[in-house]
């Protein structure tokens, strides 16, 4: 089992043969991350990948522990709308593609990323590869591999957010702040539940894809956003996080609402372009959401694991309440 432990040991011998005692080992904290017990020294040069992951650090007040962040070019709008925009402005933007060379150049002592949120066997940027370089990693819990191929997700999405907040709170010594955030988020989700009515509309999360749609199974943040807001994720039976399905399955499951991810990926990059495609695609013509024009848009940073998830639940709950119970 991999141990990411930093030890400071100094053993010096003088010309007279007198030996200076070793310095005390650096204090470490052990947490469970993606099913493994991992020990961390308190990091001071963290590099994050993706908007939501950076915002977890910012929400915990840990911007000063960051060497920088990496975000894709399609996430500029998320930064502009971020409640932590001032932190994004203060902390160095290291680029759009995370690599071993980039994090080495930043002198990172910890990389906070996730599978398909920076970590990838295809690029060789993996926790094991960074461990070989002496760089610790913390994996986003929403994206933990669950033991079935490359499927991701080991717990309900909101629990994943709370787990990461608590783990990082311990690693960085800000446990009280983590618990304060969690209590506030739980209250926000509880208040949103008061808007939920008895009948639950079926919701299709549309991220991208023209030939095949990219959507959310039960382990990605949209599943809990939809469910806690009073809807049912039509692909909530899939034991995966973000995944590709077929248009036939969307038609068969007849969603009442389409929740669009405002994320620039593929040919249709804006919410308006995505809606125009859905409305013009003949197989979807009789789907209730399309027929009645029920669309709702949330930013990418609200639909991946991030501190924006509770506010997204509240906003979507209000939309569903207004749309189906005016």
Description:
This protein has 326 residues and is an alpha/beta fold. It folds into 3 domains: 1-41, no CATH class; 42-187, 3-Layer(aba) Sandwich (Rossmann fold), CATH 3.40.50; 196-324, Nitrogenase molybdenum iron protein domain (Rossmann fold, 3-Layer(aba) Sandwich). Helix content is 36%, strand content 18%. It has 13 helices and 14 strands. It has helices at residues 51-59, 76-81, 85-90, 100-105, 127-132, 157-172, 175-193, 221-228, 247-253, 271-280, 288-291, 300-303, 309-324; strands spanning 28-33, 36-41, 46-49, 66-70, 93-95, 110-115, 118-119, 136-139, 202-206, 214-216, 232-233, 242-244, 257-262, 295-299. The strands form 4 sheets. Strands 3, 4, 5, 6, 7 and 8 form a 6-stranded parallel β-sheet that branches. It has a 4-stranded parallel β-sheet with strand order 11-9-13-14, with helices on both faces. Helix 1 links the parallel strand 3 (46-49) and strand 4. Helix 8 packs across helix 13. The protein is globular, with a radius of gyration of 22 Å. It starts with 27 loop residues before the first strand and ends with a helix. The model is unreliable at 1-25 (pLDDT under 50).
Q: TL;DR?
A:
By secondary structure, the chain is α/β, with parallel strands linked by helices.
